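Write out structure tokens for Alpha-D-glucose-1-phosphate phosphatase YihX.
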Amino acid sequence: MTKIDRTITTVVFDLGNVLIRWDPVAVFEGRLSEGEVAEFMAAVDFPTLNRSLDAGRTWAQARPEVANRAPDHVHHMDAYLRDFERSLVGEVPGTAQIARDLMAAGVRVLGLTNWSAETFEHAPRVAPVLTEFEDILVSGAVGLAKPDPAIFELLIRTTDLVPQESVFIDDSPANVAAAADLGFHALLFTDARTFRADLVALGLGIPDS
């Protein structure tokens, strides 16, 4: 990655599996077997259901449909949401320090996350650095989710950021592509070491290790 001429003023972080390790299976450790978890997730179509909750649907709205489609498994989803904090299995090593280094260097640090508004309260308990962010836009709170360009455009409007002066980091290729289409310097997250090196290459004044 080559250094750019335009100054980077802002870095926008995805949260799940960039700052916070998320593993929904962890909720059921010691409760269900691996096969039982797989059966439950298939029965409720967990990826689609989770995305709808991230996009603003409440569990109260979704539950009747799930109960009708998978009556033997709806109570597992109840348990997942009740014990959601068990799915947050710690910080991603090194990323919180990058955020703090950026703030110390005078860079704006924002969050843009696909996350249910009903469970987001758990995030800062696992990653206290989130309380230091200038702002975090939570998909479930606004009824939009990445990679919909509308949520990026909402972030731009509400924070007055300039995409050409902003880095966006996410572990989803689709989300990275959507941000790049809007002019962000979009990076695919693999690990903190690579992320830090990419930021240094873009000219941000943070330690290189």
